[in-house]
Write a structure and sequence with these properties.
Number of helices: 7
Strand content: 15-25%
Shape: globular
CATH topology of the largest domain: endopeptidase fold (from Nostoc punctiforme)
Number of strands: 8
Radius of gyration: 18 Å
Length: 213
């Protein structure tokens, strides 16, 4: 059985083929639209054989051998994925949004939909954990997903939840910077990247940290 696979930053066709146990020649035969195997880009969708485990999780383990939670390794591997301006949409972002089964289906069809929570949901699901499955970022805190982390000493990879006006923001904790924290998340300047957020300000308030059960 064939399934769709979205190219991640840092992927190569030979590596994808090897992970799925097929030759590069066969992978190219399954995807005749590829003219040059050396010219692929993040968000591009190809066909691959179905795999019993998460490609994102296993490939992230290979490319990020550091001693850190698997979900953080998966998130790191997505850095650089960004919205596409105009009428087109990044299929990778739509893949994140597809995880949000509790969100209006129409909102899951365009990458302009606020997708920070969608990214966090997708990452945790790929790592083998259940997520809130909603694009509403505050749900991670308000619904008490997982268990609480100490706000003054969170672990690397803890899920940070912020209040932002009537909405919110969610991402993965990397470092305490005093009055700010370094967060790896989606929809940060419309892409997956590391950003610094204030713990308390006119626009953002850190509500707390969560950790999977």
């Amino acid at each position: 059985m064939l399934v769709m696979y979205s190219i991640r930053p840092g992927d190569s066709l030979s590596r994808i083929a090897g992970f799925h146990g097929i030759s590069l020649k066969l992978l190219l035969a399954l995807n005749p639209q590829i003219d040059n195997p050396n010219l692929i880009h993040p968000g591009q969708v190809i066909l691959v054989p179905e795999h019993s485990t998460s490609p994102a999780a296993e490939l992230a383990e290979e490319s990020n051998p550091a001693d850190e939670p698997v979900w953080l390794k998966i998130a790191r591997r997505e850095e650089g994925v960004a919205e596409i301006k105009g009428d087109q949409h990044n299929h990778r972002v739509l893949e994140y949004l597809a995880t949000c089964t509790k969100t209006d289906p129409d909102l899951r069809t365009r990458d302009e939909t606020a997708w920070c929570s969608a990214f966090a949901c997708w990452v945790m699901e790929e790592a083998g954990f259940e997520s809130p499955r909603t694009a509403w970022a505050r749900t991670w805190f308000d619904a008490r997903w997982g268990r609480e982390e100490p706000i003054d000493n969170p672990r690397l990879g803890a899920i940070a939840v912020f209040r932002r006006g009537t909405g919110g923001h969610v991402g993965f904790f990397l470092e305490d910077l005093g009055n700010k924290v370094a967060i790896l998340g989606g929809n940060q300047a419309n892409k997956v990247k590391v950003s610094h957020y204030p713990k308390s300000s006119e626009h953002y308030d850190l509500l707390g940290y969560r950790w999977p059960e």
